[in-house]
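**Reference record**
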Amino acid sequence: MKFLFLFSILILCASGCNNPSEERQNNSIQTTNKYLSFEGKDDQFTGGIKMIPIETPKGTFNVWTKRVGNNPKIKVLLLHGGPGMTHEIYESFDGYFPEESIEYYYYDQLGSYYSDQPDDLSLWDTARFVEEVEQVRLALGLDKDNFYLFGQSWGGILAMEYALKYQEHLKGLIISNMVPSIPDYMEYSDTVLAPKMDPEVLKEIMVYENAEDYQNERYLELVVNNYYTEHIIRMPVDEWPNSIQRGFNHLNPKVYVTMQGPSEFGVKGDAILKNWDVKDRLHTIVVPTLSIGATYDTMDPKQMEWLANEVQNGRFLLCPNGSHLSQYDDQKNFFNGLIKFIKDVDMGEFNP
């Protein structure tokens, strides 16, 4: 009888005590369910997609955004490059941000594939894009307690310009693969990157450059296979992720050429961004800032490190195996460093 009594007590204790492993698993499931939940969200019907009206000097247009996840303390808005590229180049973020419970927003800027594409070239202006980002921020309810702005390439230019005007709304700033000076980028391309190319290939490219024959298929073939695969995404073209292929297919050439110029080998002609430079203003940025550079990037990684030291609270992340799209060709280093920055700022543990 005593044995049966003790056995029944053990059974009761076992049923009344939580198994630590099961408890952790249940908490994880609850956290995941909450992160993925659309309960109480006004974008449930569209699966997180919002078309946001943007006021411009030329009228009202709509831009496309899509929310992934729920985290009231961490909300990351992704600014794509190009200009005129799309959010699709960031689809790799799906492989890393959700497991860290980071809420993030895909966003096609005005003129890009999923958003309205007006024909008025005067809209493709950096200052106007800054005001667009501010309107998107307000529409999404992002503020200084949760708003992280990520910008890569042209998106990095836009992120810097936004921070220089509206940093009081930011919790963290990430500038990825973009130096603070187009003239310096051009000098690096001409004096460091170009000489590394096969001399015969470079000579042939320059024939097309000098003739301004930028749409020639041979020119594009040379640039993509000898420059892009070394400095944009370090993979053979036939191995490029589908998201990158779609992004290039959907690029709006009117936005791209107006701001970047017609050349695939730098900023040329009368492009809007040709003389862009904010080096002398970076010291006014006080918000925690991450500068991401890569060894094989089109942007000088040393200048990306300088940028991190020039802002008042900066950190530098080098992707040693990466190029311009390090989220693909140096993925582990890229996301480990990016997520650590976001978590450090969120926990109040950020230090340069």
Remarks:
- The chain is about 40% helix and 15% strand.
- Residues 184-260 form one domain.
